[in-house]
Design goal:
Distance between the termini: 81 Å
Radius of gyration: 24 Å
Number of helices: 9
Order of helices and strands: HEEEEHEHEHEEEHEHEHEEHH
Number of strands: 13
Strand order of the largest sheet: 5-1-6-13-7
Helix content: 25-40%
Length: 279
Amino acid sequence: MKLRKVTAASAAVLALALAATACGSNDKDSDSAGGGKKITIGIKIDQPGIGLKTPDGKYTGFDVDVATYVAKELGYDAKDITFKETKSADRETAIERGDVKFIAASYSINDKRLAKVDFAGPYLLAHQDILVRADDDSIKSPADLNNKKLCSVTGSTSATNVKEKLAPKAQLQVYGGYSECLTGLENKVIDALTTDDSILAGYASQDTAKGKFKLAGFKLSNENYGIGLKKGDADLKKKIDAALTKMVSDGSWEKAVKANFGPANYKNEAAPKIGNIVK
């Protein structure tokens, strides 16, 4: 009789354990859109106003705000997010390898990238532009960059595009990072800095730079920022598009733009409609 009781008790314990396991199998895992315990998101960590890791380990910037909002709509709290640096050259690989669930990192949508990854969005229409000193009125058109010292960073095509198409006599100055270009601009070692206007606005909005620089507003190209994700993940793309649409409609998008770019008087385009790629 005692043996039967023990056996029955053991069976009950086993049944409970199996039930708990079954319930657990329905929990959202760390890699599922819709509220897993953790989610890894690719961002830039060295672009003020876009994606920056501060000395105290926090993350700030427009892309960070967008990524956090989207993650929340997918069911993840801010504490569930792990931000991972994804440099420009590594973005497609990080997605394909599954290192990140999605990427929000000044990631322009183009045909070459669409061959490897999918994009939700776009969520920002940026343009290549020029940053100059606030007191410099000598550069009123791209042609005025002729004989001027124009700075960009190693690996960027922005300055080359200007020299080849708009100002063939511009003197290219290639630095290791945009911060170096900004220092050179402030010290009058260079005359202008070029890249996406959103990135320029982010740098010019730093506390140490406020009031020192201005955007020329040339709109030299259209850069549709999208959220990169694994090719063929239609369900995740649909959910992210819905989150971006909600972010615009409830005012959170405009609030994030002003908070991150406002100090540079960045004249942003209206929020783009989902799927509307401006050529």
